[in-house]
Write a structure and sequence with these properties.
alpha/beta
Length: 394
């Protein structure tokens, strides 16, 4: 009997969770262009162009700036395994789940990990890093710029100044922030940063843009031991991407051609829009969404400085978390719940890339209101959408 195999036909969702976000149609078109060899001279030129545009988005002159062929978690791990050796001291700032993950990754290098924590929804005052480094120096300070689990922003520039004053490098996880709010690597004095392709940059998951300063590269090239990871060894990666001194490329891995196309187009879109205009668009989306939530009687969880692209909402008493998310999914809208100690207590809503625009924001507010009302929640019908529209008209 002849076997029949169904075609791939996933539902079309409005992705308003913490990532991935919906992919810009221009990026999808770029991904449909012909694949060429990963050492083809034409592709090497595309790699160079992508590196250059990524430097602009990171606001850095660092040569060692590339999209690693792996997701954002691998980029964060690449920073740790390249900068740390067994016995090194590292101070990790924890303001949520992803700071805890940084500490875990650091511990696996054999480093001595010391943590500074803040209550969930808050950031760490910079002076706490000074107190810790004054007590005992460290090789590295690592922290999350935009904490996806709580919606809190950690100030970077003053922490970097303190770290350098005490002889430490500073590495940041900007997985959620890059492309949606300023990440000023050179101005802030950041030595290493790692992000992802699928959030504010709006490409599919699969790449992790990283950047390493000359100071960080001196530490990496002067290691006493081999990097813990062969695949993420920056010295080997840049033999393929180019060290900036010669144009000889050495095979390291087969680069994901189509994903590099996607990253190139995502960066092109961001730079054509203009970084400041892009940041302003994400801020406006947050302002409209937050105003709509307030009109609905909902509150945001984050107590400190809030991220524009990641909104953490307190679930009202008596409302079923999963039932609301299931109802939204029936309308092809995805949001996410909390995890760890925030499971069942909050919803996490992403306003990222193409979704940081009026239509997605207003669509979600209307659908969320309907889902809540169906559970008996009392609010002024239509007020959330109307309030968001007023914010957008200002």
């Amino acid at each position: 009997m002849e076997r029949r195999f169904g075609e791939l036909n996933p539902p079309q969702r409005l992705l308003m969770g913490p990532g991935p976000s919906n992919v810009d149609p221009r990026i999808l078109r770029a991904m449909a262009t012909p694949v060429i060899g990963h050492l083809d001279p034409a592709f090497l030129s595309i790699m160079d162009e992508t590196m250059g545009w990524l430097r602009e988005v990171y606001e850095t002159r660092n040569h060692h700036t590339v999209p690693i062929s792996a997701t954002g978690s691998a980029g964060v791990e690449a920073m740790m395994v390249n900068l740390l050796e067994p016995g090194d001291d590292v101070v990790v700032g924890i303001i949520g789940y992803f700071g805890q993950r940084m500490a875990d990754v650091a511990s696996r290098t054999g480093a001595n990990v010391r943590v500074i924590e803040a209550p969930l929804g808050e950031a760490i005052p910079p002076e706490r890093f000074e107190e810790e480094l004054r007590r005992k120096p460290a090789k590295l300070v690592a922290l999350v710029h935009a904490e996806t689990s709580t919606g809190a922003e950690q100030e970077i520039a003053p922490v970097a100044e303190i770290a350098h004053r005490y002889g430490a490098l500073i590495a940041i996880d900007c997985v959620t922030s890059l492309g949606g709010m300023p990440v000023r690597v050179d101005e802030w004095g950041v030595d290493a940063a790692a992000s992802c392709s699928q959030k504010c940059l709006g490409a599919p998951p699969g790449l992790s843009p990283v950047t390493f300063s000359p100071r960080a590269m001196e530490v990496i090239t002067g290691r006493k031991s081999k990097c813990q990871s062969w695949y993420l060894d920056v010295n080997l990666l840049f033999a393929y991407w180019g060290d900036g001194k010669a144009n000889n490329r050495v095979f390291h891995h087969t680069g994901p051609i189509t994903m590099i196309y996607a990253m190139r187009e995502a960066l092109r879109i961001a730079l054509e829009e203009g970084l400041e205009a892009r940041y302003a668009r994400h801020r406006k989306a947050h302002e409209a969404f937050a105003a709509g939530l307030e009109a609905m009687g909902l509150t945001l969880f984050t107590k400190g400085k809030r991220l524009p692209m990641l909104n953490v909402i307190n679930i009202p008493e008596g409302i079923d978390d999963l039932a609301v998310r299931r109802r939204l999914l029936e309308q092809n809208i995805e949001i996410s719940g909390g995890f760890g100690p925030l499971a069942g207590r909050v919803w996490r809503v992403g306003l990222m890339g193409v979704n940081a625009n009026p239509a997605p924001v207003i669509t979600l507010l209307g659908a969320l209101e309907q889902a809540l009302v169906e559970q008996g929640y009392r609010c002024e019908r239509g007020a959330a959408v109307e309030t968001a529209r007023i914010v957008y008209m200002r």
